[in-house]
């Protein structure tokens, strides 16, 4: 089931992954082993007030590691926040970073690491492989089962000048260590668990539907779909620690898959409008998920059948034509069970600005948006998405995402 023309691939994951209940106990030794002596601990106010920072700080203290806390990362952080954190790290002479939080602190913390060693502003490094020096060594401790940013080389931040997202990508940006401790996601509120889980599920599904898939990324993506789809309901609505741990591991596996097979149209469409979207990243990409899956279905019935199987479909007496669309039905059923919205509302996003969002999509997920550039309706989106999309397709997908879907 080769999905692209390419024949030579590479799989890269330099991040050491430590996981299991109470695995944050390892933080002191891990930090010392990295050759670091003073930590900048990056987090946000919500994580701090939920009491999740405290055990990590106590463990650092117990190991004799001095630290400075920067817990001012906002949801969807921008270059200003990253600059502020970098100033503190430089002033306090921190030589390592520990991030405790979800995707926002994990991206801000990694951006801070880039700025401390390279100088300038984070926008200078937007795009791929722009920074010349490795960032500060970083340990990522996620407190949501969603972004997978603890194993990612891509730093996603808000570009405050362009009202869009920017991506700072480099193999040097991988955290050195990720610690996946399900005890830290035990108290995550229902809705946060849902939106972060849907984001992770989107990473896994997108990673399975690109032109850069390999048997290695496929194995990770399908297992991640299986873990997240099978456990997200219980992980969000109950105290089931096993379900929470399954979602946490699944979200990390999903990001390892998409870090190598890349993402497709969902995140490209999401990033292009999220600068103006009143809602979380998980909500934005989740609403787009069923629509883009329907767009992608004709590109590979085989792959959609495998997705359906990983969500529990049985092969018995099922044809490919019967099995494949069920992947979309399963996602819709999950959304109904979780109370996840079927469409965007006018209060979240300006429908009239769709042509503007579509123009941003044409820069591609890893490109830098040029507001002066115009595109014809048949221009093709630069993307690894399994089905090529034009500007016209992108506009139609955005329009559909305001209309809602039906269960077929
Ligand atoms: Fe995402």
Give a structural overview.
This protein has helices spanning 27-33, 45-49, 53-62, 79-91, 103-118, 190-208, 215-237, 241-261, 265-274, 281-296, 301-310, 320-323, 326-338, 354-361, 391-400; strands spanning 16-19, 39-42, 67-70, 96-101, 127-128, 138-142, 154-159, 164-169, 177-180. With 408 residues, it is α/β, with parallel strands linked by helices. The strands form two sheets. It has a six-stranded parallel beta sheet, sandwiched between helices. Strands 5-8-7 form a three-stranded mixed beta sheet. A hairpin with a 4-residue loop joins strand 7 and strand 8. Helix 6 (190-208) runs parallel beside helix 8, helix 6 runs parallel beside helix 10 and helix 7 (215-237) packs antiparallel against helix 8. It binds fe (ii) ion.
Entry summary:
The chain has helices spanning 27-33, 45-49, 53-62, 79-91, 103-118, 190-208, 215-237, 241-261, 265-274, 281-296, 301-310, 320-323, 326-338, 354-361, 391-400; strands spanning 16-19, 39-42, 67-70, 96-101, 127-128, 138-142, 154-159, 164-169, 177-180. By secondary structure, the chain is an alpha/beta fold.
Mean pLDDT across the residues is 95
The proportion of residues forming helix, as a percent range, comes to 40-55%
* Biggest beta sheet attributes: 6 strands, parallel
Radius of gyration: 20 Å
β-strand amount: 5-15%
Features:
single chain; 408 residues; alpha/beta; 6-stranded parallel beta sheet; 3-stranded mixed beta sheet; 15 helices; globular; binds fe (ii) ion
SSE blueprint:
Blueprint: E1 16-19, H1 27-33, E2 39-42, H2 45-49, H3 53-62, E3 67-70, H4 79-91, E4 96-101, H5 103-118, E5 127-128, E6 138-142, E7 154-159, E8 164-169, E9 177-180, H6 190-208, H7 215-237, H8 241-261, H9 265-274, H10 281-296, H11 301-310, H12 320-323, H13 326-338, H14 354-361, H15 391-400
Parallel strand pairs: 1-9, 2-3, 2-4, 4-6, 5-8, 6-9
Antiparallel strand pairs: 7-8
Helix pairs in contact: 4-5, 6-7, 6-8, 6-10, 7-8, 9-10, 9-14, 11-13, 14-15
This protein binds fe (ii) ion.
Residues 199, 203, 267, 281, 285 line the site of fe (ii) ion.
